[in-house]
Design a protein that fits this description.
There is one protein chain. Helix content is 35%, strand content 20%. By secondary structure, it is of the alpha+beta class. The protein folds into two domains: 110 residues, Roll (Ubiquitin-like (UB roll)), CATH 3.10.20.70; 310 residues, Glutamine synthetase/guanido kinase, catalytic domain (Creatine Kinase, Chain A, domain 2). Strands 7, 8, 9, 10, 11, 12, 13, 14 and 15 form a nine-stranded mixed sheet that branches. Strands 1, 2, 3, 4, 5 and 6 form a six-stranded mixed sheet that branches. A hairpin with a 4-residue loop joins strand 9 and strand 10. InterPro entries: Gln_synth/guanido_kin_cat_dom (IPR014746), Gln_synth_cat_dom (IPR008146).
């Protein structure tokens, strides 16, 4: 396992030498920006932000005053905004902006920058990023490059539907056009706002492959072109924010929540495309085997909430551990050599952590030269019922599997992160279990 040893040394805590110049360069071309939104995604998948006036941001960078301090939200706060009971008030976290990710927001006066998170305590005053999902993804990508000469391209399919507030104050579905690539769905009044949003995203340099109506009714999909892993996840979150901000300006709510309305059969996923670079059959089999072997554990990251498991069905997230060439019934669909679509993911996931888990599982398969024991379901001669291992039916099941295999995943991005993630998710299960089901779905519509 030496090839997969994790560098758990501290993240760079110095303000980058070129950060001030990067912000000044952006400001020269965007002199009307007033606010900088420093964003990070917590373990519950919630996007959080510290908003600073741009002049204060310049002041911090130029004078190297205090860092961007935030409360210990990353790994201590639930989807319901409640802290873990043992969350230390003496635990300080602060943001490490990646200035290469800066983009104009839908709000014309704001820009968005994605951040890593480092932490300190009195007993451990040296800042470190051991709990940071963004750091975990960077480490896995580095391991792939250094140990195997591999790089990755990652693309996402952004599924969403549009909601409005009813006379009773509840969210109801507003977009109603027929789906499944139906042209009629493009005549829905909501579609003009989708087009508006996509046009603006293209102007901002977002790589978009196409748009279509999705699902049975009232759903859209925007397919993003592939990018390297970190940039792909940053782009995904930027598109989410832009869609939500754009529709909010028109009085509506764009949501990617996995099942917004309990009586509506519609579900919403966040399918991910991964391809190895270079693409070759030598790495392909063991990489895929590593993912399949650990897919039940990966579900703890990719389907991270109790509502996520309502998508555990064929053609959605899948029911069993399997794969197949152009087999949409499977959680992993092979498209071409070393290119797969991972379908058992929804938009409530911390996508940095989910992608790190998927890529890390593939690297573990390579390190162990694990054989591909699962048949290709795209081959119609395959005997059914001879290969099936069920995917977890609940979040509790997937967390139990992750806990059993914590040592395995710990070699990829560290035991401390995994244990903290399990602890927070178990606490979250206890919180949402007592919530009114309607209020829980309304919360997910707002957050995701």
């Amino acid at each position: 396992m030496d090839q997969l040893s994790t560098d758990t040394s501290s993240m760079a805590t110095e303000i980058p030498m070129d950060a001030d110049e990067a912000l000044k360069g952006f400001y020269r071309d965007n002199f009307d920006i007033i606010f900088i939104r420093l964003q990070w995604q917590d373990y519950s998948g919630v996007m959080r932000a510290l908003v600073l006036p741009i002049e204060e941001t310049f002041s911090i960078l130029e004078e190297e005053k205090q860092p961007f301090h935030v409360p210990p939200l990353l790994s201590n706060c639930s989807v319901t905004n409640q802290y873990l009971p043992d969350a230390s008030a003496r635990h300080v976290q602060w943001l490490v902006p990646d200035w290469s990710s800066i983009r104009r927001a839908s709000d014309p006066k704001s820009a968005i920058v994605m951040c890593g998170v480092v932490g300190t305590t009195i007993s451990k005053p040296v800042p470190n990023g051991d709990l940071c999902p963004r750091r975990a993804l960077v480490d896995v990508v580095r391991q792939a490059r250094e140990s195997w000469g591999l790089r990755f391209l990652v693309g996402f399919e952004v599924e969403f539907q549009v909601m409005k507030v009813s006379s009773t104050g509840e969210y109801v579905k507003h977009s109603q056009g027929p789906g499944n690539f139906s042209v009629s769905g493009l005549r829905d009044p909501c579609y003009k706002y989708v087009q508006q949003c996509v046009q603006q995203l293209l102007d901002l340099g977002v790589h978009i492959h196409g748009i279509h109506s999705e699902g049975k009714r009232g759903q859209y999909e925007i397919a993003l072109k592939p990018l390297p892993p970190l940039q792909a996840v940053d782009q995904l979150h930027f598109v989410h924010d832009y869609l939500k901000d754009t529709f909010a300006q028109h009085g509506y709510m764009a949501t990617m929540a996995p099942k917004p309305i309990i009586s509506d059969p519609h579900t919403i996923g966040q399918h991910m495309h991964i391809s190895l670079q270079p693409a070759d059959s030598y790495h392909e089999a063991s990489f895929l085997a590593g993912i399949l072997k650990r897919l039940p554990m990966i579900c703890a990251f990719s389907l991270p909430h109790t509502l996520s498991y309502e998508r555990r069905l064929p053609f959605l997230a899948g029911e069993t551990v399997c794969w197949g060439t152009e087999a949409r019934i499977a959680p992993i669909r092979k498209i071409e050599t070393s290119h797969w679509e991972i379908r058992c993911i929804d938009a409530t996931a911390n996508m940095y952590l989910t992608l790190a888990a998927i890529l890390g599982a593939g690297l573990l398969g390579l390190a162990g030269q694990e054989p591909l024991l699962w048949p290709d379901l795209g081959d119609f001669t395959t005997e059914s019922k001879t290969w099936e291992e069920p995917l977890p039916r609940t979040l509790q099941e997937s967390l139990a599997r992750l806990a059993m295999e914590a040592d395995d995943f710990g070699t990829v991005f560290g035991q401390q992160l995994i244990q903290r993630y399990i602890e927070l998710k178990q606490y979250e299960i206890s919180l949402v279990g007592g919530m009114d089901p309607l209020k829980l779905r309304q919360l997910f519509i707002e957050l995701f």
